[in-house]
Amino acid sequence: MKTIEVVGAVIINESNQILCALRSKTMSMPNHWEFPGGKIEKGENKEEALIREIDEELGCSIHVKEKIADTHYQNESLVVHLHTYIANIIDRIPVAREHAQLKWVSVAELNKLNWAPADLPTVQWLQQNVGIRD
What is the pLDDT of residues 50-69, one digit of tens each? Predict the structure, then answer.
């Protein structure tokens, strides 16, 4: 079975809210929320891929901080290996270029969203580690 390596950004703002992205109707798993990011391309390390993907998807620049989760999710055709990192925006305001919607959500409200399965371990980590921000 094919495995794809992907990265996701847990982008936190000054109000300790998390940027959540709603998958569009043209994406796999539409109408599920996720942490923005994407596939790691050949020759990239995880942090480089995340910076590139956020620039492409959201039109902003980020600073990648610590890795917080390493998740495997399997469906009928492939295994997704997701690496999520804490990040913060360093330039420009995020815009939904590929997603149906972007939303800033408090950690306490994260569980009210319909998350893509691969992102659930990161949601759980955030709910258990609310105080980590810097």
Answer: 999 999 999 999 999 999 99
Q: Output the pTM of the full model.
A: 0.91
Region 76-98: what's the mean pLDDT?
A: 94
- Is residue 122 helix, strand or coil? helix
pLDDT band of 98, cuts 50, 70, 90: very high
Both tokens of 18, joined, read: 């998390």
The β-bridge relationship of strands 17-22 and 33-34 is antiparallel
Taken in order of first residue, the domains within the chain and their CATH numbers are 2-128 (3.90.79.10)
Kindly report the length of the chain: 134
Torsion angle (degrees, nearest 10) of CA 33, 111, 71, 53: 30
Name the helix (H) or strand (E) containing 11: strand 2-11
Report the distance separating Cα 27 and Cα 120, nearest Å: 18
Most distant CA pair in the chain: distance in Å? 41
The strand pairing partners of 80, in sequence order, are 4, 73
Determine phi and psi for 48, rounding to 5 degrees: -60, -45
